[in-house]
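Fold description:
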Amino acid sequence: MHIKGDTQAWASGYGLKINYLKLQSLLCREGKPGRDKEEPPDMSRTVKQVMRDTEMGMPVDKVAEKRHISRELAEQICRLYLTQSGVDAEGIMRKMGIS
């Protein structure tokens, strides 16, 4: 994951603002045994898992709990996935401003 200081990113067409430093706090990494606290999360894998859970009809709260991410992040990924036809994980990450 590439973090660009405190730069603001705008998801095109939605006006969603993400602070790259705040993104770190949206990812709940505690509670995962054996995981190094400095290890960056694999956002592509997380987005794909959230997309799959959304496709199965899982509620946002359950997705966030299952994937160990904040409810806000899970909701944003689900919203982008459901409103953008044919978008893939990389497309969602681009719209969120994560490269």
In short: The radius of gyration is 13 Å. The longest strand covers residues 8-11. DSSP finds five helices and two strands in the chain.
